Design the sequence.
C-alpha cells in the first residue's frame, strides 16, 4: 500500500502544524513515510504545500499522483486537482464550497472553521482537521491524543484536545487503508537534522554559521540543544567569519563545523584554501538551492557540484560527499569528522533543499556504530627538539599537535607557502614538496571513498546514474521498470570526490545506454565522470526548475529515451 | 637588547631595516616575558601584511591566516581553549579595511583576546596604497590626487561600539607600549590597541619623527572610565594625539556570558563519546 496526501494553503494558515501532527500520528501508527515540502520565500501568504507519502513498506521519494488533497484555500484545489487520482478526494472547509469546482463525489466539505470558532479559538482549525483525517484514515484516536499532549501545554492543550475530538466526531467515511505489519520502532527525521545529530555524535563542539535557507535547520537543531550538549553555536557576522572561526577552533583542537547554502559557500571559498594549506581538519556542509546569486531561496537543485570541486583558488585536496538519505546523513557526517582529522583535510557534505526538508521514517541511528578517531599526536610520538607542524613523513601526514598541551612545543600554521616549520618560504624546491605532500591526500582518500549504490538488473542494458537526493526516485523507477520487463539498473553516488570508479566502470561496460539524471543544467556529475574516466553518457535527464523530479516524471523521461 | 627572552626566535625577519615592526616585536616579547607567560600557552594570530608576519618571528604558537581574517580564527582558538593567551598582530588595512566587519562585530562579541594593530597608516606589503587610517590629502601611487575618503577612526569606533578596552600607543615609546600591551593582555575581554608603527619606505608623512612630535601621554588625572570624555579624546588627532588607555570598562567576556559554559573546563579538554549524544534523538521517535 502506498498513499499520497497533499496538504496546501498559504503561509501562516497552519498547514505546517497539521503536517507535523499528522506525520507524527502516521509514524506512531507504524506507517513508513516520506514527506517533502514546497514553499515560497515568504512568511505570510503565497502558496505552500507538503506532500506526505506513506505506506506499509519503505517509501523512498515523492510521487505526483495524489490520493487526497487537503486544501486550506481555493488555490490549493486549482493548483493540484489535475494530479488527483480517479476516485481521489479533496477535503476542505464548508466555506470554500462556492469558490471551487470539484468533480462529483470527490469533495468532502467539513465545518472546520465553524468547529474551531465554537471552541473559541480559530487557530485550532488544523487540529479539527487532524481529528477528521484520523478518523478517515482509520488511525487510533489515542495516538492522536498522545501527539497533541506532546505538542501543546495547559489551556492550549485543553482546547486542542477538544478540537481533535470535534474533528474525529465529524465521522468521515473510512478510506479503508491497509494496516502496517512491521511495527519496528522508527524515527522520523530530515537529512539536515541527521547531519546535526551526526555532528553531535562525532563530538562537534563549535558550529559557526550565518543563516541561509535551506541550511539553517542544521544550526536550528544544534542551537536548540546547545545548552544540554554544552557546545557553542555561534551566529557569525558573515560566512567568511563563520568558516574562519571554525578553522581557528579546529586548529586549537576541538571538532568544529560550518554550514551554509551556495551564496554563503561562495563567500567561504578563500578560507577553504586556508584550511587546505594550513592542513587544518574541517567539515563544511553546503545545502544546495538553485543559484546563481540569490536564485530560488526555498527550492532545490544539485548545481553546486562543479563549483565545489574546484572552489578555492590554487589546487587543494578535498573530499566531497553527497547525502542520499536521512539515514546516511548521520553516519556520513560523523565519518566526515574522522576523515578530516585522519588526513588533516577538508570534507564537504553536499545536501539540497529537497532532502533537507524531507521527513523520512528510518531505523533509529545506532550511536554505537560511531567512533571518534582524533589522530592528535602526543609528546611521545614526536621527535626531540622543535616541533615541526609540516614535517615530511613516510605516510605523508605530519603529526599534528594542538596548541597549549605540550610544554616546550609550539606550532605555527601558515597560509603562505611554508617550510616544515610553518615559516614562509619562497623556495621552488620546498613548494614542490609541500604541494606534493598536500595533493597526495587525494590518493589516500581514493581508498576511503565508498562505491556508489547499485540497484536493478545485474548487467543492465540501460544504466541510470545520479547522485545525492535523487537516490530514492532512481531506486523506485528502476523497480517499476524492471517489473515492466526492462533490463535496467541505476548507480547512485554518495561520495563523489575523489570519484569512486570501480563499480562505475563495471556497470557501464555492458550497458547499451548510459543516462545521467541530475537536478542541474549542465550535467555536472556526468562532466566529472567524463573528466575522471573518459566515460560518456548517451542521454541526460536534467531538471533545473527548482522542483525535485517525481517518480512518474523520471519514469516517463526514461521511457522517452528507451 | 635585554637578557635573552624565551620568546626570541631565530627566523630571519623580512622587514626593512628601520621599520617600526622591529621595535613592536621586541615590545610584545618583553610584555609576554614580563607577564610570566610560556611560549606554549600563547597563540599569536594574524592576517596578511607586513605586520601580520609577526607570528613567524616569535617563539609561540602561531596562526598566520588570510588577509583581513585575523580575528575569526583567533576567536575560534580562544573559544576552543580559554586557557590560552590569544593575541592578534595585524595591520591597519587588515584589521580595519578588509577585516572591518569582523572588527565591528567582535567588539560586540567581546571574546577575551588582545588585538594589536600595527597602524602605519598605509598598506606596506602591497607597496604604499592608502589604508583606512591614511589621512585625507595623502598622495600615493593610487590616490594620485590625495586620499578623498575621510579617515577611519578606530578609537572612536571601538568606544562607540562599547569596547571594554581601547588604547593607543607608539612603538617609539617602548615603556609606554609595553605597559599598554600588558594592560590589554590582562583585560578580560576584547582589548584593542592601535599602535603607531612607522613605515619607513611607504609613508613619508607619518614618520617616526612625525609620531614623536604628535603624540602626547594622557594626563595623570585622566579617567578612562568616563565614556563621554573618552569619546572626546578619541576625536583628537591633528593637534596632538593622545596615547594611553583611552577607555576601559569591565564587562563579561563572551565565554562568561554563556551560562552553561561558565564553570566548564576548556572545550578542548572534553572527553568525546558518541553515546552522550544519543538523547538528542529522542524527539524524533
Ligand atoms: C584577499 C586579499 N586581498 C588583497 C591581498 C593583498 N594584500 C596583502 S597585504 C595587503 C594590505 C596590507 O596592509 P596592512 O594590513 O595595513 O599591513 P601592512 O603591510 O601595512 O603591515 C593587501 C592589500 C591579499 N593578500 N588578499
Ligand atoms: S614596507 Fe614599511 S611596513 Fe613594510 S617592512 Fe618596510 S618599513 Fe616596514
Ligand atoms: Mg598598514
Sequence:
Amino acid at each position: 500500500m502506498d498513499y499520497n496526501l497533499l496538504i496546501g494553503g498559504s503561509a501562516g494558515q497552519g498547514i505546517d502544524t497539521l503536517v507535523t501532527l499528522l506525520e507524527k500520528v502516521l509514524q506512531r501508527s507504524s506507517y513508513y513515510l516520506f514527506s517533502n515540502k514546497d514553499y515560497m520565500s515568504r512568511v505570510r501568504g503565497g502558496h505552500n504545500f507538503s506532500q506526505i507519502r506513506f505506506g506499509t513498506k519503505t517509501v523512498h521519494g515523492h510521487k505526483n499522483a495524489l490520493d487526497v488533497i487537503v486544501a486550506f484555500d481555493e488555490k490549493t484545489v486549482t493548483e493540484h486537482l489535475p494530479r488527483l487520482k480517479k476516485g481521489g478526494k479533496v477535503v476542505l472547509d464548508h466555506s470554500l464550497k462556492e469558490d471551487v469546482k470539484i468533480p462529483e463525489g470527490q469533495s468532502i466539505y467539513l465545518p472546520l472553521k465553524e468547529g474551531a470558532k465554537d471552541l473559541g479559538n480559530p487557530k485550532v482549525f488544523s487540529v479539527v482537521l487532524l481529528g477528521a483525517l484520523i478518523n478517515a484514515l482509520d488511525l487510533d484516536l489515542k495516538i492522536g491524543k498522545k501527539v497533541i499532549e506532546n505538542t501543546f501545554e495547559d489551556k492550549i492543550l485543553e482546547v486542542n484536545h477538544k478540537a481533535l475530538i470535534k474533528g474525529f466526531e465529524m465521522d468521515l467515511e473510512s478510506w479503508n487503508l491497509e494496516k502496517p505489519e512491521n511495527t519496528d520502532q522508527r524515527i522520523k527525521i530530515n537529512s539536515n537534522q541527521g547531519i546535526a545529530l551526526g555532528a553531535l555524535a562525532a563530538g562537534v563542539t563549535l558550529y559557526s554559521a550565518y543563516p541561509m535557507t535551506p541550511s539553517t535547520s542544521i544550526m536550528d537543531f544544534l542551537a536548540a540543544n546547545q545548552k544540554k550538549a554544552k557546545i557553542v553555536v555561534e551566529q557569525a557576522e558573515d560566512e567568511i567569519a563563520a568558516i574562519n572561526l571554525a578553522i581557528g577552533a579546529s586548529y586549537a583542537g576541538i571538532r568544529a563545523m560550518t554550514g551554509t547554502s551556495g551564496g554563503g559557500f561562495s563567500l567561504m571559498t578563500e578560507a577553504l584554501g586556508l584550511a587546505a594549506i594550513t592542513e587544518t581538519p574541517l567539515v563544511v556542509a553546503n545545502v544546495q538551492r538553485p543559484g546563481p546569486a540569490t536564485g530560488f531561496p526555498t527550492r532545490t537543485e544539485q548545481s553546486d557540484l562543479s563549483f565545489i570541486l574546484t572552489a578555492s583558488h590554487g589546487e587543494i585536496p578535498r573530499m566531497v560527499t553527497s547525502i542520499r538519505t536521512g539515514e546516511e546523513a548521520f553516519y556520513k557526517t560523523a565519518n566526515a569528522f574522522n576523515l578530516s582529522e585522519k588526513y588533516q583535510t577538508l570534507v564537504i557534505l553536499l545536501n539540497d533543499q529537497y532532502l533537507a526538508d524531507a521527513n523520512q521514517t528510518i531505523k533509529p541511528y545506532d550511536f554505537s556504530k560511531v567512533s571518534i578517531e582524533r589522530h592528535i599526536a602526543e609528546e611521545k610520538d614526536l621527535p626531540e627538539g622543535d616541533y615541526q607542524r609540516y614535517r615530511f613523513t613516510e605516510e605523508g601526514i605530519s603529526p599534528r599537535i594542538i596548541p597549549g598541551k605540550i610544554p616546550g612545543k609550539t606550532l605555527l600554521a601558515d597560509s603562505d607557502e611554508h617550510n616544515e616549520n610553518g615559516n614562509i618560504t619562497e623556495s621552488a624546491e620546498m613548494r614542490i614538496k609541500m604541494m606534493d605532500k598536500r595533493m597526495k591526500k587525494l590518493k589516500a582518500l581514493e581508498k576511503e571513498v565508498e562505491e556508489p549504490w547499485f540497484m536493478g538488473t545485474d548487467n543492465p542494458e540501460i544504466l541510470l546514474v545520479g547522485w545525492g537526493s535523487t537516490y530514492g526516485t532512481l531506486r523506485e523507477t528502476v523497480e517499476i521498470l524492471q517489473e515492466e520487463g526492462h533490463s535496467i539498473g541505476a548507480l547512485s553516488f554518495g561520495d563523489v570526490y575523489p570519484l569512486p570508479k570501480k563499480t562505475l566502470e563495471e556497470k557501464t561496460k555492458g550497458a547499451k545506454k548510459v543516462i545521467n539524471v541530475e537536478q542541474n543544467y549542465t550535467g555536472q556529475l556526468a562532466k566529472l565522470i567524463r573528466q575522471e574516466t573518459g566515460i560518456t553518457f548517451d542521454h541526460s535527464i536534467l531538471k533545473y526548475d527548482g522542483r525535485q523530479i517525481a517518480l512518474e516524471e523520471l519514469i516517463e523521461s526514461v521511457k522517452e529515451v528507451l | 637588547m635585554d637578557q635573552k627572552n624565551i620568546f626570541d626566535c631565530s627566523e630571519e625577519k623580512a622587514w626593512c631595516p628601520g621599520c617600526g615592526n622591529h621595535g613592536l616585536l621586541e615590545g610584545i616579547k618583553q610584555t609576554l616575558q614580563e607577564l610570566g607567560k610560556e611560549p606554549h600557552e600563547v597563540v599569536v594570530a594574524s592576517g596578511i601584511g607586513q605586520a601580520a608576519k609577526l607570528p613567524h618571528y616569535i617563539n609561540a604558537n602561531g596562526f598566520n591566516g588570510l588577509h583581513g581574517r585575523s580575528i575569526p580564527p583567533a576567536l575560534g582558538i580562544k573559544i576552543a581553549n580559554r586557557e590560552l593567551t590569544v593575541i592578534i598582530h595585524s595591520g591597519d588595512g587588515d584589521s580595519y579595511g578588509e577585516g572591518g566587519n569582523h572588527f565591528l562585530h567582535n567588539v560586540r562579541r567581546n571574546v577575551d583576546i588582545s588585538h594589536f594593530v600595527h597602524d602605519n597608516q598605509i598598506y606596506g606589503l602591497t607597496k604604499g596604497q592608502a589604508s583606512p587610517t591614511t589621512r585625507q590629502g595623502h598622495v600615493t601611487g593610487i590616490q594620485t590626487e590625495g586620499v578623498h575618503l575621510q579617515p577611519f577612526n578606530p578609537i572612536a569606533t571601538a568606544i562607540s561600539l562599547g569596547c571594554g578596552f581601547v588604547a593607543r600607543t607608539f612603538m617609539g615609546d617602548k615603556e609606554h607600549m609595553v605597559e599598554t600591551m600588558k594592560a590589554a593582555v590582562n583585560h578580560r575581554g576584547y582589548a584593542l590597541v592601535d599602535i603607531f608603527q612607522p613605515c619607513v619606505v611607504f609613508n613619508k608623512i607619518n614618520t617616526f619623527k612625525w609620531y614623536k612630535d604628535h603624540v602626547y601621554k594622557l594626563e595623570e588625572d585622566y579617567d578612562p572610565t568616563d565614556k563621554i570624555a573618552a569619546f572626546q579624546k578619541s576625536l583628537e588627532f591633528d593637534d596632538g594625539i593622545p596615547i594611553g588607555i583611552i577607555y576601559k570598562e569591565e564587562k563579561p567576556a563572551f565565554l562568561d556570558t554563556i551560562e552553561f559554559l561558565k564553570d566548564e573546563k576548556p572545550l578542548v579538554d572534553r572527553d568525546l563519546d558518541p553515546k552522550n549524544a544519543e538523547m538528542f534523538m529522542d524527539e524524533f521517535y
Q: What stands out?
A: The pocket of magnesium ion (ligand 3) is lined by residues B 49, 91-93, 120, 122-124, 131 (CB under 6 Å). The radius of gyration of chain A is 26 Å. Chain A touches chain B through 73 residues (CB under 8 Å).
